[in-house]
């Protein structure tokens, strides 16, 4: 089992960990050390045990906040995946079973078409007479 030398609050510690976890342990120790240094800078001299307790609590609070945000993000991702799945299902259904669309097309009655054609012919004949008369 590997052992890692870490420094927190100016003191060195030797900590054992599982093989391959050394970088994680070193990163965690660095975070704790930074938090402890911030506390020492803000509040001056305090007992080491209290400083480490406060630093640990501050990191735990930050972690709890991140876990809440992670849960919210995971819930949102599930909702988006559900909507995406529903949309894909609807799209696939429309591709395999297209909906018939009926549109009403206005129809001009045949008698009206004949009447308009007759009126057009009369108007053209009248226009020719006016043109010949020179009016």
Written description of the protein model:
The chain has helices at about 20-45, 50-95, 110-135, and strands at about 5-10, 10-15. The termini are far apart. The model has no long low-confidence stretch (mean pLDDT about 90). α1 packs across α2 (about 50-95). It contains three helices and two strands; from the N terminus they run ββααα. Strands 1-2 form a two-stranded antiparallel sheet. By secondary structure, the chain is mainly alpha-helical.
Annotation keywords:
two-stranded antiparallel sheet; 135 residues; 70% helix; mainly alpha
Brief account:
The chain has 135 residues and is mainly alpha-helical. The chain is built from 3 helices and 2 strands, in the order E-E-H-H-H. The mean pLDDT is 89.
């Amino acid at each position: 089992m590997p052992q890692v030398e870490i420094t927190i609050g100016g003191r060195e510690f030797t900590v054992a960990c599982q093989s391959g976890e050394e970088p994680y342990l070193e990163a965690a120790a660095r975070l704790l050390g930074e938090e402890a240094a911030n506390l020492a800078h803000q509040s001056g001299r305090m007992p080491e045990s209290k400083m480490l307790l406060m630093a640990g609590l501050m990191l735990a609070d930050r972690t709890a906040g991140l876990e809440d945000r992670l849960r919210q993000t995971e819930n949102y991702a599930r909702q988006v995946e559900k909507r995406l799945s529903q949309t894909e299902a609807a799209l696939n259904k429309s591709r395999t079973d297209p909906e018939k669309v009926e549109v009403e097309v206005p129809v001009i009655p045949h008698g009206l078409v004949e009447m308009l054609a007759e009126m057009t012919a009369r108007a053209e004949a009248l226009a020719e007479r006016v043109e010949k008369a020179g009016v």
